[in-house]
Design a protein that fits this description.
The chain is of the alpha+beta class. The chain is built from two helices and seven strands, in the order E-H-E-E-E-E-E-E-H. The chain has one domain (about 5-135): Roll (Thiol Ester Dehydrase, Chain A).
Length: about 150
């Protein structure tokens, strides 16, 4: 069974627009914090440490559906898992709920790269990272996210 990483997200005043709802670009910052926590808690590396394993994992693409507005004071649960772990890329699935209400769902694809002659070049995901990701990789019981976007 696929393990799901969970993180509590508090919606703050600074996340919101004058109408009091989360301004959609703020969700991308929030999702980045969730991803940063996943890297630290599961992979054992911080974004600053990623070079210690000889590779980086920059974002190559993001797709996101906003299902319901978030408001100041909401306490949400972000859930993250790897929908697909390829040879050189990982497609993460992330959902955010407030109670039972879905607020957003997102697919974020990262590519494994290394620095070669001053250029970023895609490279296979190191075995050590792949092993730490394995429990969070979707299996046949984990349906893929269905995004409208």
């Amino acid at each position: 069974m696929t393990q799901i990483y969970e993180s509590v997200v508090r919606i703050r005043f600074g996340h919101c627009d004058p109408a009091g709802i989360v301004y959609h670009p703020q969700y991308f910052a929030i999702l980045n914090y969730v991803m940063e926590d996943f890297f630290r808690d599961v992979l054992g590396i911080t974004f600053n440490d990623v070079e210690t394993v000889g590779v980086g994992l920059p974002v190559a693409g993001v797709r996101c559906d906003f299902a319901a507005p978030g408001r100041v004071g909401d306490v949400c649960t972000a859930r993250l898992w790897a929908e697909h772990v390829g040879e050189k890329s990982i497609r993460f699935a992330i959902t955010m709920h407030c109670g039972e209400e879905l607020r957003l769902q997102c697919i974020e694809t990262v590519v494994c790269v290394k620095l070669e002659n001053g250029r970023l070049v895609s490279t296979p995901i190191p075995d050590e990272l792949r092993a730490k990701l394995a429990p969070y990789a979707a299996d046949e019981t984990t349906p893929p996210l269905r995004l409208r976007a």
